[in-house]
Specification:
This protein folds into two domains: about 280 residues, TIM Barrel; about 55 residues. The longest helix is centred in the N-terminal third of the chain and has 29 residues. It is α/β, with parallel strands linked by helices and about 400 residues long. The strands form three sheets. The protein has an eight-stranded parallel beta sheet with strand order 7-6-5-4-3-12-9-8. It has a two-stranded antiparallel ribbon with strand order 1-2. Strands 10-11 form a two-stranded antiparallel ribbon. It is globular.
């Protein structure tokens, strides 16, 4: 009886310590979960901005193409060196429009950003585009052309009138499925004062996503508290220059620091010689477009905006033409298909969206470590109590705590 009584004496102490460790375990796991959940709501230590809708992070980045509806039969007689395979069309031709939208959707393009200001022909053509886009589930945004052909700014009263008219007449038809509102890109914002931009913003209210088209980080910062983001129209960039990606990254960081949307540009090449310029960026058999798309996606965009579907004077078009055939369109199709099928890139950085904190610590890891500590502590206490005489020495009686640790601990 004496031996049996002595072999059980350390049990209350061991159980008490083990219970304390388990309680600490549960507390720390709970704290780890709370910390993880709280870290998921921040980016770079700053609260996530609620000013504009954000995309579902599981959805691929939308890809748009700038689209122009200014073509008449006479348009093809000026500043052109190539012509579309579909023919020298009028933008009033609904059959051509339907084929353009079909080709774009087949290539993986999610939407058009169509050039517009309120004129009788452009209003009529926007009606047709809205109808065809609805048929083929093409998203639409509007690029408001606030500069005249001579590059002079329209009166701010005209800009205000046109944008309000746009959302009142076509608001439902051009409401983005990604952002829940019409997306309007205001070209030439550098030619307007902050008071002018604020006036238009207040007239629009929250009925539209209004993006600037600034050309520099400072130009965007001037309007950052008024607009909802930035869509930089950089058609003549050289994607092989390190300065190009550096500038796009700086623009992206500035926009995201203000909680805005960043539409990153990508172009297949550029040739402004037909317009009297000298700058030429060769297409390089589609490699220029690939490098430009790489830069765009590396700049952490909320959308990528390809320049362009059909700008035939600056020669940035990807619409199939007589000189290059459908090369750039096939290049874009293959690029987007490869991107959508590729697994997420491997990274050594923790995923902040999953609630992991910077050191890689998590509730599961805390649980495993503390379970090991609990088991080790329990065994150590049992052995220590036996070595101090709490159990029979050399009697062959079994200790209350087994010598062998359970391998599952």
């Amino acid at each position: 009886m004496t031996g049996r009584h002595r072999s059980r004496r350390p049990l209350p102490l061991v159980v008490g310590v083990a219970a304390s460790v388990v309680a600490g375990l549960l507390l720390l796991v709970g704290l780890a979960a709370v910390a993880g959940s709280s870290s998921a709501t921040t980016t770079g230590g700053q609260p996530s901005a609620p000013s504009v809708p954000s995309l579902d992070p599981t959805h691929p980045t939308p890809v748009y193409a700038y689209f122009y509806q200014w073509f008449n039969p006479s348009s093809w007689d000026r500043a052109k060196r190539d012509y579309p395979l579909v023919g020298r069309y009028s933008s009033d031709d609904t059959a051509v429009l339907r084929e353009q939208v079909r080709q774009a959707r087949a290539a993986g393009i999610d939407g058009f950003l169509t050039s517009w200001k309120s004129t009788v022909p452009l209003n009529r053509r926007l009606d047709r585009l809205v109808a065809v886009a609805k048929e083929q589930k093409l998203d639409l945004g509007v690029v408001y052309e606030a500069l005249t052909f001579e590059r002079d700014p329209l009166p701010v009263e005209t800009v205000e009138h046109d944008m309000v008219y746009l959302v009142e007449r076509w608001g439902t038809g051009i409401s983005s499925r990604y952002y829940g509102k019409p997306v309007i890109i205001w070209t030439g914002t550098e030619r307007y004062s902050t008071a002018d931009v604020l006036r238009v913003r207040q007239a629009l209210g929250h009925r539209a996503i209004l993006l600037a088209a600034a050309k520099t980080v400072d130009g965007y910062h001037r309007l950052a508290d008024i607009v909802d983001g930035e869509a930089y129209y950089w058609s003549s960039s050289d994607p092989t220059s390190p300065a190009t990606l550096a500038k796009m990254t700086a623009m992206s960081e500035a926009v995201h620091a203000h909680g805005g949307l960043w539409f990153a540009p990508a172009a297949p090449g550029f040739d402004g010689t037909t317009l009297g310029g000298t700058r030429v960026i060769a297409r390089d058999d589609g490699r220029t477009l690939v490098a430009s798309l790489d830069n765009a996606f590396r700049s952490s965009p909320d959308a990528v905006a390809v320049i362009s579907w059909n700008e035939w004077s600056e020669n940035t078009y990807i619409e199939p033409g007589e000189e290059y055939g459908d090369r750039e369109l096939v290049t874009l199709t293959d690029y987007l298909a490869a991107r959508s099928s590729a697994p997420p890139p491997a990274t050594t950085e923790p995923d902040s969206s999953a609630g992991d904190i910077g050191s890689g610590w998590s509730g599961a890891r805390a649980a495993l470590l503390l379970l090991l500590l609990a088991g080790g502590t329990t065994v150590w206490l049992a052995r220590r109590s036996r070595s101090r005489g709490d159990g029979p020495s050399g009697s062959g009686a079994h200790s209350a705590v087994p010598e062998r640790v359970d391998a599952s601990v």
